[in-house]
Amino acid sequence: MNNEQTLSINRLPAPTWNWLGMNERRIDPISIDRALTLQPAASGDIAAENGPAPADWAQIATGMGADVDALTAAADAGVYQFSTAAGAEGAALVHLDYASGNFANRIYLHAAENSVLKLTVVLASARDAKGVAALQVKAKAERGARIRLTTVQLLAGGFTCFNDYGATLADDAKAELVRVELGAGHLYTGGEAALAGEKSDFQASIGYLGGAGEVLDMNYTARHLAKKTNSLMTAAGVLADGSSKLFRGTIDFPHGCPGSKGEEREEVLLLGDDLVNQTIPLILCAEEDVEGDHGATIGKLDDAMLFYLASRGIPAAEAERIMARARLETVCALVEEEGVREEINTYLQGKEDA
Questions:
Q1: Looking at residue 2, what is its pLDDT?
Q2: Comparing C-alpha atoms, which of 153, 277, 167 is closest to residue 220?
Q3: What Å distances lie between residue 299 and 20, 270, 272, 303, 319, CA to CA?
Q4: What's the whole-number mean pLDDT along residues 304-329?
Q5: Start-to-end C-alpha separation, the chain
Q6: For residue 51, with 0-12 CB atoms within 10 Å meaning exposed, 13-18 middle and 19 or more buried, which class applies?
Q7: What 3-state DSSP class applies to 7?
Q8: What digits encode the pLDDT tens for the residues 25-57?
Q9: Cβ neighbours of 77 (radius 10 Å)
Q10: Report field, pTM of the whole predicted structure over 0.85
Q11: Alpha-carbon distance 206 to 216, whole Å?
């Protein structure tokens, strides 16, 4: 299949600092072979089926941008849809096991009025597998509904991963996004929530680990489009072994969203010297009666802490492992499925032993 595409992704809503080259990421030509077959394990009152893209698919913006829409559509495999009826509650688990090759999948989540829909997706591969793993999820929460999406990425270093998300929220609706990003040699992720209904709420919790020269590029945006909306985006990461990371976090307050609040926080632990850490916290404001806050905490392990641990027989390498695990644990603990948490521990142990 000849469908090579050059991508422009993770574009900032308002370009800035052009001379640093941080406004977007350009990717050399990528081709997609096919989609993986989804075999979800479902519980509760949830419907699941594969079919053509829903009518509003193209209207839901994502964090990574339109080029990822085109990339995932190249698999020509339709959109897998999960939905809940009004007042219902359902959950599903999808395990994507990648062999070598270039794959793309699209998922649509629709939670009807006052319903709850939860989906967990695990992206995993054998250690020697390589290729492209692209996943795009779009979500629509009707009035009073709640959607929770958890993605756990445990790919081998030979993979380039695209992990994209977009959501639109009606009145009193809530979207929760939990991301645990632990693998892939090149990782590109993004998320965007359109808080289109009054008192809608978006919360994103992101944990990431960069090592062995890995590249991480992330772009998250909360757009407050209605009155009294709320967003909270937090990220906790560890960079080691010559890795590099760029995190963009934008809170957008256009005119017409009085009484809204947005907050973005990032904590980064640096283990080593040959690292690149870039963070762009951005607040766009065209409305007066709003509250926006952002900040980043970035640093290495304190020498006093290392000395304290060494005095109790804990060598520096083990101290770094303990602190790195502790930094990621806050996000990993949000994964509700015990079996998936065990997969995370096994994967981390394998990286530490490598």
A1: 54
A2: 167
A3: 22, 6, 11, 12, 15
A4: 82
A5: 36
A6: exposed
A7: strand
A8: 999 999 999 999 999 999 999 999 999 999 999
A9: 19
A10: yes
A11: 13
Locate 218 and state its tokens. 């992330």
Which residues neighbour 52 within 8 Å (Cβ) at sequence distance 6 or greater? 78, 79
Query: Which residue is listed with tokens 């809170």?
Result: 251
pLDDT recorded at residue 149:
98
Q: At 305, list the tokens.
A: 């802490």
Q: Residue 1 has what pLDDT? A: 47
For residue 97 the two structure tokens come to 């096991």
Look at residue 195 and give its three-state secondary structure: strand
Give the residue from 51, 190, 29, 204 showing the smallest Cα distance to 102. 29
Other beta carbons less than 10 A from residue 237's beta carbon: 27
Of 235, 246, 315, nearest to 275 by C-alpha is: 246
Token duo for residue 264: 């973005």
CA distance 243 to 137: 27
Q: Tell me the one-letter amino acid at 292.
A: G
Cα 110 to Cα 117: distance, rounded to the nearest angstrom = 8
- Which residues share a beta bridge with 208? 181, 237
Helices within 53-185 (DSSP H only):
66-73
* 80 in Cβ contact with 106 (< 8 Å): yes
Contact partners, residue 299, CB within 8 Å, separation at least 6: 268, 269, 270
User: Which single residue is written with the structure tokens 């690292």?
Assistant: 275
Q: 146-193 pLDDT, tens per residue?
A: 999 999 999 999 999 999 999 999 999 999 999 999 999 999 999 999
Amino acid residing at 108: Y
CA 237/CA 331 separation, integer angstroms: 10
Polymer length in residues for the chain: 354
